[in-house]
Specification:
By secondary structure, this protein is an alpha/beta fold. About 25% of the residues lie in helices and about 10% in strands. The protein has 5 helices and 11 strands, in the order ααααβαββββββββββ. It holds the Pfam family LRR_8.
């Protein structure tokens, strides 16, 4: 099968812009990053500052501020080895620095706009980039502040589990928090270490801490369907080595990091009806037991050619209702067990179909 599509108009890349424009953009990014990190360090928020560091400095180099907790005895920067107690929590710090950031960015954008003849090209691009990075920072800070489960291992662990707002079933080793109007993981809920299924669907959860499911090595089923989750930490599923079913349908996820490096037993994965725009090429490299994969209803424009490589057990693949510009028949190479494929050809500009 071969598919071809019309190319969209290219409005230019950063490499094509004049040197002074790139310099102004870097200065703008550096100013915002410096203010954000300074705010968080002022209040001793080491973990939150680490989130700022990882989010904002990809394009502008090393940070100009280094918290003392990140230094060794010689004054050299090290990785964050501990979490200090913040005078403000991460979300409060973010809210309080937001106005300062807006005041800092406004004159920079005005200057860029003026020097660009009022066309808004560079200023618009860089303004959108700054806005996206600040939104990413906001999501990461909210994740840092989220509560985690209290894990129990005593003889009465399942009895204690029923003291919380969720329904715990000893006979099935399952915990259901379905339709409880939760906006976060319930901090008063204890969770037995040997739980095998958790249902958090149909709530209003916005974010999750990276340690939400830490140590739940018996967990095989996790349902996060129909929430408002827009950010997932990279390491959140790392200890779920026996996970076989993950449902993430109907959330607000925008970016997908390499989430499944250690989830080698996963068979059913539903990430449909989110706002995902792109996927890492090696996202499914370790998930060779996948049987069902649903990615429909997102905003994906292009799938990397080898993204489904070696998924020999995959039978049901749904890529429909995306914003596909092109799709190569190469992505199905080696996917030998496919029985059902949905691509939604009408969402692609022009196609020439051969066969799978």
């Amino acid at each position: 099968m071969s598919l071809a599509v019309k190319k969209r108009k290219n409005f230019g890349t950063g490499a094509e812009r004049r040197p002074w424009q790139r310099g102004e953009a870097a200065a703008a990014m550096s100013t915002v990053a410096t203010l954000a990190l300074a705010w968080l360090q002022q209040f001793g928020c080491c973990e939150a500052a680490a989130a700022v560091n990882g989010t904002l400095y990809g394009a502008v180099g090393p940070p100009p501020f280094v918290h003392p907790a990140w230094m060794d005895v010689g004054g050299n920067a090290t990785s964050v080895g501990r979490v200090d107690v913040c005078a403000l929590n991460a979300c409060e710090a973010y809210v309080r620095m937001r106005d300062d950031l807006a005041n800092a960015v406004r004159p920079i954008n005005d200057k860029l706009s003026g020097e660009d003849g009022g066309r808004g090209g560079v200023a618009g691009d860089r303004g959108a980039l700054l806005e996206a990075r600040l939104q990413r920072l906001d999501r990461r800070l909210r994740s840092v502040e989220q509560p985690v489960w209290t894990i129990t291992s005593g003889v009465s662990r399942w009895k204690r589990c029923n003291y919380g707002p969720c329904k715990c079933r000893t006979e099935t080793h399952s915990v259901s928090c379905w339709r409880k109007d939760f906006e976060e993981i319930p901090p008063g809920q204890t969770l037995p270490y040997d739980v095998s299924a958790i249902d958090l669907s149909t709530n209003s959860i916005v974010s999750l801490h990276k340690d939400t499911f830490k140590g739940l090595t018996n967990l095989t089923e996790l349902d996060l369907t129909d929430n408002d989750i827009d950010y997932v930490p990279t390491a959140i599923f790392n200890t779920l080595e026996n996970l076989t079913k993950l449902r993430f349908h109907r959330n607000h996820l925008i970016e997908v990091p390499l989430l499944f490096k250690r989830n080698t037993k996963i068979q059913i994965l539903d990430m449909s009806m989110n706002h995902i725009k792109q996927l890492p090429e090696t996202l499914f490299q370790s998930t060779k037991n996948l049987v069902l994969l649903h990615l429909y209803g997102n905003k994906i424009e292009v799938f990397p050619k080898s993204i489904f490589k070696d998924l020999n057990k995959l039978e049901d693949l749904d890529l429909s209702a995306n914003s596909l510009l092109e799709i190569s028949s190469d992505i199905f190479r080696g996917v030998s067990s496919l029985k059902k494929v949905e691509i939604a050809r009408k969402s692609i500009a022009t196609t020439t179909l051969g066969g799978i």
